[in-house]
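Late entry, evening session. Most of the bench is empty. Finally got around to the prediction I had been postponing all week. Sequence below, unchanged from the version circulated by S.P.
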Amino acid sequence: LTSGYWTKHRPQFDPNCAATECKKMIFSLSGLPGAGGWSPQVTDSQPWLQLDLRDRMEVTAVATQGRYGSSDWVSGYLLLFSDTGQAWKQYRQEDGVGRFVGNVNADSVIHHKLSHSIRSRFLRFVPLDWNPSGWVGLRVEVYGCAYKSDVADFDGRSSLLYRFNQKSMSTVKDVISLRFKSHQAEGVLLHGEGQRGDYITLELHRGRLALYLNLDDTRLRFSSGRVAVTLGSLLDDQHWHSVLIERFNKQVNLTMDTHTQHFRTKGEGDSLEVDYELSFGGIPLPGKPGTFLRKNFHGCIENLYYNGINIIDLAKRRKPQIYSVGNVTFSCSEPQLVSTTFLSSSSSFLSLPATPSASAGFAVRFQFRTWNPEGLLLSTQLALEPQRLDLQISNSRLITQKTHPAVSTGHRVNDGLWHSVSLSSQGLQVTTTLDNEPSSTIELGDHMEAGNSLYFGGCPSLNILGCKNPTLAFQGCMRLISINSQPMDLNRVQQGRLGNYKELQFDTCGIHDRCLPNFCEHGGQCSQSWNTFYCDCSGTGYTGATCHNSIYEASCEAYRLTGGSSGFFSVDPDGSGPLGPTQVYCNMTEDKVWTVVTHNSTDPVRVQGSTLQKPYVMKFNYSASPEQLMALVAGSEQCRQEVMYGCRKSRLFNTRDGTPLSWWVDQGGERRTYWGGFLPGVQQCSCSLEENCMDMNYFCNCDADTDSWANDTGVLSYKEHLPVSEIVIGDTNRTGSEALYRIGPLRCYGDKSVWNAASFYQESSYLHFPTLQAELSADISFYFKTSVPSGVFLENLGLKHFIRLELSSPSVVTFSFDVGNGPVVLAVKSHVPLNDRQWHYLRAERSVKEASLHVDQLPLRFLEAPSDRHLRLRLNSQLFVGGTAARQSGFLGCIRTLTINSVTFNLEERAKMTPGVSVGCPGHCSGSSSLCHNRGRCIEKNSGYVCDCSQSAYGGPSCKEEVSVSFDRESSVTYTFQEPFSVMQNRSSKTSSDYRESSRARENIAFSFMTTQSPAMLLTVNTFSQQYIAVILARNGSLQIWYSIHVDRKPDVFSPSPSSLADRRLHRIRIHRQGKDVYLQVKEGDEVMRAGSKGFIGCLSSVQFNHMAPLKAVLLNRGSSLVTVRGHLVESNCGTLADLTILHSQSGITVSRGKGPLRKASKNNSVVIGGVVSAVVFITLCVVAVMTRFLYQHREAQRDASIKEKEHRHDLETAYRRETAYQAESAYRTELHLHHSSTLRDNREYYI
């Protein structure tokens, strides 16, 4: 049997079965006499099997089988459905997967229960793969039941009015449901309004569903600022879509097909009051029949219910409540709009003959829709060879081009909507018209005619008659193609009787919205091409393929471990969780790192005139949200808050019955009556605990109720109750009575997650936790150290899915998982063994976009997720840490700081009750204090430890000693190194790899300087491809940062502050760039040339570029070929001396990472400068005074720039684990200082 149509000849269904009972067979092709099933001819290159169910049915399941008694079966197929047998739509399962898994032999039956039923008459099975040793063979069964509906057809000039029995209808609860289909992207489905300002409007707008709903807010009624809740897209596809609106008071659920959005409506009231009537299909103008305020709906609506009332049934029975405007019929007309899908961006094309024209010239019309910003729409050879006329999409605009002259029209034609285009020649002009926009024209030198063939969507690979794709072929849909006013019959093309084609799919538009649902997290903006989607994370504070990873550290302790110093930092307490970052002050001057969160009332407040009936109440608003505060407190080891309370004739407790007269409220809203220094639940103050109350008959000094001032100041330290959210004072209304209070900021120290560790010393032991909840995304990070060659770090299994991290060999870490598309394995191989008893950092991430694995400073390994495949990781067993469910291949060693999706797992708590596992991890480098500073790495030794300062700009035993050099006008240092390193990439269009690399591109630059000279060149990074980064002082002494990303454009200039830094004070500069994060405006200037010509006179200290410390390399490797020194250099201690005289954090220049302008502030923060970086080149890093060649190459520069910042400030220190993905061993000498300490010898690791 060839491809063709099959009709069911014996319906086998119960017409009365409910939708939930639709499990009976309604079609069977399972045992035809002789053939034993369906098999197309071998010459059929695009076979399909089509079923006609004779009427619309509700299909709930399908089953397939190979051809009987043969080696023919289908192993994968698509399922399409249609009401007419002409316009088809592909059925997509959950996650948008369109491919169905078929058979592995000719006899077994494979059932597929549909996640959402199909209501249609025609089904089409399209084989994708089959037995390579046989051919296509198929037996099918379809399950479901009959489907009945009430249908109304609206022609774009009609509507139905449902009129109420009374003047108005007021409801607090509404349920409205309907199904619709349309081929137009605009049109009103439902409207109603009331005189007091209530309204409800449901309409299609640009192919999306928009709901406007307002309750009793007259301001919005007369304004143009109505805000719609939108849902869905591509709804003009001529297929049925379901809508459900559920409202109770202000709470609304809007459901479109399988997607639901919950929101709270605007307005003051809880009821919706609509006057006179509801209209369906349009908004008629009162008194003017046939006139409408908005564009009417053109299409079909079925099963329209308003609060249980069947509107269409009333209309069909001509009930008086329903008034019909225009021509409303009760059967659905089907417009003949048949689409064709161009599947490939490299090889798809459609060739059609140029039909004769009644007049000279030619005319072509068609409609198209696509997501791609590039693609050839039409190409034809002109009569004047070898000229060609091309119509293409370039940079999202429509371009008409004849050899060299070109004109463009339209804005963003790759928006997924249908666009109409016509191309015609008349006389010496070629005219292009797009939609309803003004036409654009190309002037010709002679009369022209099209050649014999017109190529739509692309050119053949054989380059016939000079036809060549300018960039990419068109990938999208076309319909209504006409040449010289003659419509083209694409059925004849499909049958091989007209033209030629390749990589096309007829009778369907296969466009798919990959941004619905939006997988971009934390407010990332989703954009898409035909095959994939992208997330723009700019301004969100997050990065990664889906904006999943926070760019900020989770605590001040984490910033200290990266070498940070005291200052203001943005911390993200729940990492990749939903809370977002907040700004805190990190005090790192003590052994403990304190996190300080301020509130709105830190000054002393005097209170008088309050009683218990009318108390004084103060609520405290902190710089962090309540949820962020809870996360900060929960993650800290200890928290404190000072409460200063002074009183005069003002008691805290009633001395007769103990009733509290004043109290404070904790973070959970609970009233607390204990005061500073005492334990929860006891109504006492700190003087009672210390036994020094002024009157020992009372538990608080204030309760003595004296005329003199008393003090009950103390510190609240029960962190589960902190911070103080409110204070209530009620006894200051007597003569001479008053109170004075001050609530200090919340202060916390420690990070419970950083040193939460467990030691595994039996291979069969493990820790188990609840099932990992990571369907769409999972980030897993931890530190490990071991001496064994292999072992499983963690594993979680499902029925077929799994996720696993393991040390597979002494130098290889593997990350493997399966989400239903087959196992995926990523491996990172280290050049040194990882079982060296040292701490190693591991981070694995899996999202719907890609998977990645990062180990220490080794190159990041990643793999893009395939498109149109399964997305969700479904697990159902426990999470095993340190072993597997089979108790085999267990891990022996230490694991600490295990964090999954930013939730830290308490390994120590589980280890207390698990045999073979102990709490903590012994060893010198395991303590909670940082032994090595400023990115120094702690390395275990049998007799102590050493600090590896090779990746630090500092020296000394603990990597804390400044490395400084004084320069004169003629001196400079050039450091050249060869290593894998990302540099700015100059491309005009973004491929998927460009988006991926853009999110990972980063630089980290840090140095200190002291000078009185300006202009001055401080530091440059220069590539052989003439791209550069320069940090200079301008003529006025202000700091400027120059980025030259594209060599054919002027550089981008960033001026953090106009203040002069040439003030003989030490300034610390730190620059961190990650991805494309900055928007700017550029003006002309030549500050780099001025700065370079003046050189630099002064002192530079602690220069760091990523993991390289070039200034330190100069002092340690004077004879190295990588180091070039010009002029006279003198080793200095300017950094150390300056630290003794000034605290830089109180006067330094900082740049915030937000959306406001750059400004001066007394806080240490960072600037992120954007670009696209991905190549591996040779880099020259120069700490320079004179750069003659550099200046010659870059004479054009810029003076000013404006920049949009992010909302929260980013610390200038970045953890070494988050540095550039491409790292190499440093080219300068490793500096190790061995500590011989008898006090530490007894702490070495006994388990190894």
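Two things to note before I forget:
The chain is about 5% helix and 40% strand.
The CA atoms of residues 158 and 1064 lie 80 Å apart.
Will write this up properly tomorrow.
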